[in-house]
Specification:
single chain, about 180 residues, 2 domains, 9 helices
């Protein structure tokens, strides 16, 4: 996946070298980022090595958009000036939105893995039973990792009545 994304970015870099920054940003967001984010709700890198591979795609794209390939220049400042959120944050948000859709019957997916906790729990009324995980691959899969991260959300966030209000509030939360 990262090889395909890097090849697409290299093609854009060769052919759009003299374009303005806004056009390069649009090209990255249209052609490269969807490759990396395809099925990101169910696939998330679990090792540090794979995590770095995926994030490096966006870092190289930032150099392309800014047309600054010097080694001494910080790519982090480039990403901040472009207002790009990390791909890990985007994946986490997409997973939470998918869990919200699933628990509010907005998608036609039936799952036996999503089990609600008894109603006597305190705090968040939308509590799910955390699946027991022994295998690392399953630990980082959709349900165990998303249920773990939904507990960090506030009751006000989880009880939103519409998907758009849930997304707006989720984006306004600090990462």
């Amino acid at each position: 996946m990262t090889k395909k994304a890097n090849n697409t970015r290299a093609l854009l870099q060769r052919n759009m070298n003299r374009c303005p920054e806004a056009i390069k940003t649009l090209c990255y967001q249209t052609f490269v980022r969807p490759i990396v984010e395809y099925a990101s709700t169910v696939w998330d890198p679990s090792t540090e090595k794979h995590f770095k591979y995926v994030e490096n795609v966006q870092r190289q794209a930032a150099r392309f958009v800014k047309s600054d390939y010097r080694r001494r220049i910080s790519v982090t400042t480039m990403l901040e000036s472009l207002n790009w959120v990390s791909l890990a944050s985007r994946r986490a948000e997409a997973k939470l939105v998918m869990l919200y859709r699933n628990s509010n019957n907005l998608v036609d997916v039936t799952t036996s893995a999503l089990t609600t906790a008894p109603t006597r729990t305190t705090g968040n009324t939308h509590r799910y039973l955390q699946p027991c995980t022994r295998i690392e691959a399953y630990k980082h899969s959709f349900f165990p990792s998303t249920i773990k991260s939904i507990y960090k959300c506030t009751q006000h966030l989880v009880s939103k009545e519409s998907l758009n209000s849930f997304r707006r509030l989720l984006q306004s939360m600090p990462t």
